[in-house]
Amino acid sequence: MLYREAGQFKATYAEDSQIFPIRQDKIGFWLLMLVFGAAVPLLANEYWLKAILIPVLIFSLAAIGLNILTGYAGQLSLGSAAFMAVGAFAAYNFILRIEGMPFLVALVLAGLTAALVGILFGLPSLRIKGFYLAVATLAAQFFIVWALVKFPWFSNNSSSGVVTAQDVTILGYTFATPEAKYVLTFLIVAFMALLAKNMVRSSTGRAWMAVRDMDVAAQVIGFRLMRTKLLAFAVSSFYCGVAGALYAYTYIGTVEPEGFNLDLSFKILFMIIIGGVGSIMGSFLGAAFIVLLPIFLDNLVPAIFGDSLGAGFVSNFQLIVFGGLIIFFLIVEPHGLARLWQIAKEKLRLWPFPH
Amino acid sequence: MQFFIEVLIGGLLSGVMYALVALGFVLIYKASGVFNFAQGAMVFFAALTFVGFKEMLAKHLGMDADSSMVFWLSFLLAFISMIVLGIATERIVLRPLVNQPHITLFMATIGLTYVIEGLAQMAWGANVRGLDLGIVDEPIAWLMDNYEIGVSKFDLFAAGVAASLVGLLALLFQYTKVGRALRAVADDHQAALSIGIPLQTIWRVVWAVAGFVALVAGMIWGARNGVQFALTFTALKALPVLILGGFTSVPGAIVGGLIIGASEKLAEVYVGPFVGGGIEGWFPYMLALAFLLVRPEGLFGEKHIDRV
Amino acid sequence: MARQIGDVIVDLQNISLRFGGVKALTDISFNVKEHEIRSIIGPNGAGKSSMLNVINGVYHPQEGQIFFKGALRPKMEPHEAAEQGIARTFQNIALFKGMTVLDNIMTGRNLKMKCNFLQHALYWGAAQKEEIAHRIKVEEVIEFLEIQDIRKTPVGRLPYGLQKRVELARALAAEPHILLLDEPMAGMNVEEKQDMCRFVLDVNDHYGTTIVLIEHDMGVVMDISDRVVVLDYGKKIGDGVPEDVKNNPEVIKAYLGTSH
Q1: C187 is in which domain, residue-wise?
Q2: Where, if anywhere, are coiled coils annotated (chain B) (predicted)?
Q3: Which of B267, B271, B276 has its CA nearest to residue A160?
């Protein structure tokens, strides 16, 4: 009853093409921003911030990155984690080797480095599609992690490539507490999500989707395949790179290349499948789902089956649940949680008078 | 020179084993258009199930774990498990996703990979097991004495098994009724259905055969490196093999396997030392990637022309 | 008629196209004049679609030359053809299935949009202004083709006839000089065909767009074409004004299926 757009008329095209054309959505969105931007850091405890909220935000960013490439531009990648690794180690080296490097500049440079590497590994996409490309992205996954381990320069000669992120300082203020790190992560992720949303709703995004849906027709209309695909690789890798840097600096603190393995790449893929392929909001939903699910299972399994089964059982059970959910979503709702949310809204719009 | 030949032969023989895994991919791809990412997990599942049954039978029947009776009984049980897995996959994953885009099916098989890995370890535990097929991994004396070239007996045996399996499958494809139906299905699902070929039965058969191939591959790999989770990564190397050989070609899988096997060993030995070693992990992928830029359809794949 | 047929704009000379061993087109020459409606007809598999694909650079013929506005055109990619003002629709609708009608038509404007992805990311100032300016143009096309009520519908949900219309809208949004239409009326009922005919004639009349049309409905072709070229088995068997083509014995033979 409260969710109605009747009476909200759009008089200009600018009003018609807003991100939230319906007033209730806009109010809801700002409330959400207020809750997560202001209330949460004031109220949440350290565990919630460190173990759940910060990783959800960071993985959301990585998922947005993959969604740009896979969901919008239709190029499946199995190497997202490797681009996160590039971002993390690039940020580390920029801050380490350049005196007085501001953190935010390092973050952008890390993203740009990842974007460059992304373009390089995106080149095969000009000739191949589908799972051929997916296999090609495995090359990025294995090669990048290997290179980061093998060349000690990347990790400043530490053993097996482990690096510890420096303090995060912006304008003399050091982000040391979980609250401070959370707020910083939140602002960066929210800003970048907005940029992503803007890209996908304008000509850039239409070019990506056109190439995804039918590349021959896209070319005939005048899109350049090479430029469009490589831009998707670059932007996607930029997002993954920044996510990787945040992963090191505001989440884990100490990272090693092996942490950015194929498993993590798959997790990010799962986030967009479950959250919604081709949806920025879905990236957030999927990341939250994938971060929360293991925590949920860790608590649920012993409660149901007792403690006798051991950790091995729980982790195998997790594998099965993860895999099963992917199959389930692909069969039942290929557009993921984002689509379910949309359906719910459409229902709500008619409620309580459906006819 | 001897050393070069030794490395080359070693590489070629291990390439045969990649080809064996790749074969499973090709079979399923040809018959159902599904790029089955879970083939690696199936190899792991099969090997673990075989070893698991062997241990269990030996314990319950009070027999020697190395007796041939236990061996063949375990083999049979593991094969039946693979058939059940194949049928379940067809029913639960493939059938509801029929006519979906290939990429959706591909992602579903990534999910399937997780399920199979979880199931395998839940049923049989996650610790590394040894597997003894009774063939020792030592150089063939005759070659060593006369030419000073070390070629492992085990590798040669594995290559022999792979070759006979390939031959068998080729015969099956070419000369049996099921094989003909299979080729028809691979060509055009709709047309095959319309002349009364039972699609679902064909898929089940193919998954069962792929399961059998996975079992053989898993036993050989397992005997070589131990039955452990890392098998899934070894099996992943079948992917670059496929890119080289083309997804639809059985001979392609063999040739691709040989090229990958030989080149990765040669690269490791001759290039590896300059960059700190360990390049085997990514070399096949990079090779495949470079190859894709030149010939996207693979060595034996068909060139695809988009009709608009 | 208000429009004046102008000079030759596309001149195809001795075009041959092969796929492996299959000959799709053999030694075909014909031209298209500015502002005319030029139809290509012929039985199924005659090479009509291949002909369009040659014109807009999807296929590159092994032999023959293409002159565009009097100059020899080098081997070009489809997007380059688009930049030259060639737009087209496809036989099997090639809309972007995951996008709305509005977004599909907006893609037609892409060559005229100058902002880069960074400006799009900020969506402020120039990018927004540009988006709205082009939206206004697109709305004109939407109004012209009478599809206002479906502008926010995902194209995948539309019936066939409307999808064809949206595809025409997308091509028109590019304000092309030459419009290649590949069976725009296939599978339509009489009413839909009449609508489509009206749109084609209006476009030609209003904007002076040169139209190359593939169509099976002979009534339509003979009614609206200025000149017709007839293909059979990849060869040209007739060329001229509708009356001449209608009475050409070779054409009649090809259509009535007399043995060769």
Answers
A1: 1-85+176-260
A2: none
A3: B276
